[in-house]
Specification:
Four copies of one chain form a homotetramer. The first copy, chain A, has ten helices and no strands. By secondary structure, chain A is an all-alpha fold. Chain B binds a DNA duplex through α1 and α3.
Chain lengths: 199, 199, 199, 199
DNA sequence: TATGAATGAGGCTTCATTCAT
DNA sequence: GATGAATGAAGCCTCATTCAT
């Protein structure tokens, strides 16, 4: 039974892994439309045909990569949100999480930033996205009177704007060094911004 | 006597204007690569060939639209920056300016947001971009001791993140109504966030 | 009555002349398909539309220029042929004529060399071409026993090859100076070649 | 066991071969600009896209065909030149070689004649062209006192003019039958012409 | 099952020609 | 009669996808 695994899975898994790594890196560098199947296959070291054994189309490849990463991030943020921490601690944890995501795989982060507008419309309504997690965190805090009444979406925009723009600046070289080092300051900034939304 | 103007100008100027309007709207809706010359020509109501009398290529059309809007915004922010107002007033004015830009032509704003990653590398170094204006505003404030010492880029990221993410949320329907109505709150949020960056 | 000439003819004639000069020069430099109507109009300093007042199409412009120059050359060679001179003298005069044509307007010569394959099929059968003149000159000489019996076309090929290849070499810089200076030598070469065709 | 060769090679090699044959024939008939990729693909019986697996552009296809044939001819003539034969024998061999080339593949010959002006500027300086071979042959003969002093280029022009104009006449139907049958006469003609260049 | 050549649709661009002014 | 912007038909090329081997 291990024979099966030995012969097929690793090879296939290897192909899939290599393709996904190549695709993320190339999409992050050149955008979805700036990358051809030939590019991906070449960087992954596989044939173009092999790629279609794992994904039915280029669109589906991109979508799988995006939705997986995006919704996984949503889950992780939701886990923070429902972890019982106070609002401040939860925001701080979320900011730290974003920083960690960026530092660990900035290509994946850049891929999401770059291609979001193409894939977001395909996200099924009802999915738990990162935005939903932050919006609900703010909404909960308002409900629980931890925060004066504000539009939860506005609060979420402020929180996410702080971290996402820092990531963008980092990508373009305006900011250097690990983002994680700035997580505490960014968390403070987010919280202060949210607090300032109310008079 | 106005016959000349009436008869000649509109033909050429009309085409260029119609093409630019169509291009911005379509790029804003579908991204640069998601729009074909045929799409633009059809929406503008002109032939595909006519487009090439005004722009030498699709790339140059997109670049002209982007760089014009982007650098004009940079100039306008620079004008606010050098207008003699205090830091708080200047940030408030900038936020209001961003909101006005969005409210007046949200397609153009969305176009810039969507296509920036494709065109930013072509911005000549030394140009005054919106980012430069905000970074320098923060830098000046630090120099003049209006702000405790912080990385100007970090301060700018925080300020721009707040407004740009709100615009993004508005585009996706998370936020409704004129952004201008929220300008004061967003200005407060930005300022509080910057202040919180230092301990 | 001279008013008419003063106002209209020179202007029109000027346009036509300028267009033809520009067209010949450009076609000679870039080939027929390598030149656009826009190129010709620009070099001639006239509008594209004006060009169509004198020629119904680009093809007709090229054809008029080619056939005029080509058939005129045919006439001139025919005049030499029927001028009563002996074979040797006639060949010598023809070679000198080719050299003069080249030296006087090498762009026109180059134009003919370059575009001949495109226009030759349109020459009406029965026209007196340069080739016909030389072929008939050789044929006459054979008939009159000035030459041992040879295929007149073969003799003509040899004569024309000598001068045309020299022109080609001159165009490509292999040969320098006025071709006219070499006319006597080329005439001798042509005659010797024709003579050598028979055992 | 030959199955592999039978099954795989012909697919790729077949396409390339068919494309090249079609391209040469069409270019020879209509000139480079008179032939579209669609024409070539149709005559070759392949799709237009398939063509681009073998050549990166139409220009490169034409260039590859031209430079290969042209430079190969240069090599062959150079081999004759350096073969140790006397001048007369070498010229005779070269003329015979030209005739053989024409008789074996007159479309290829016509292709070279027709498209030379478009491709000659791309020949790298220092390449051994057919013209160089003939020029050097004449130059050597002068150096070795086999020939009275003449401009080698002039001698080469005369030699090449004789054969190339015969080929041209053959193309246009002025001369019929195999050119090879006329090779001896043409060789005599060339030699006589060269000799006559000096008084 | 992997390969990569072939397909074919569609995109960008050029340009001869027309025509309103 | 002159102008030059607009047209529209090709032309070249790319690339996601398929498929024979």
């Amino acid at each position: 039974m291990f024979t099966y695994k030995w012969n097929v899975m690793p090879r296939s898994a290897g192909v899939k892994t290599k393709v996904e790594r190549a695709a993320v890196d190339l999409f992050a560098a050149n955008g979805f439309d700036g990358v051809s199947i030939a590019d991906i296959a070449a960087m992954a070291g596989v044939s173009q045909g092999a790629l279609y054994r794992h994904y039915p189309s280029k669109e589906e490849l991109g979508w799988a990569l995006f939705s997986t990463a995006y919704l996984r991030t949503g889950e992780e943020l939701d886990r923070i949100r429902t972890g019982g921490a106070e609002f401040e601690a939860a925001v701080t944890a979320m900011i730290a999480h974003f920083c960690a995501l960026y530092d660990e795989d900035s290509a994946l982060f850049r891929f999401m930033l770059l291609t979001q507008h193409g894939f977001l419309p395909r996200i099924p309504s009802g999915s738990r996205t990162p935005v939903d997690a932050v919006v609900d965190l703010v909404g909960d805090a308002v409900t629980k009177n931890r925060l004066k009444p504000i539009d939860p979406a506005l609060g979420a925009a402020v929180i996410m704007g702080v971290i996402l723009q820092c990531a963008t600046f980092h990508i373009y070289g305006r900011l250097c060094g690990a983002l994680g080092a700035r997580a505490p300051a960014l968390a403070r900034a987010s919280l202060a911004a949210v607090a300032a939304l109310t008079q």
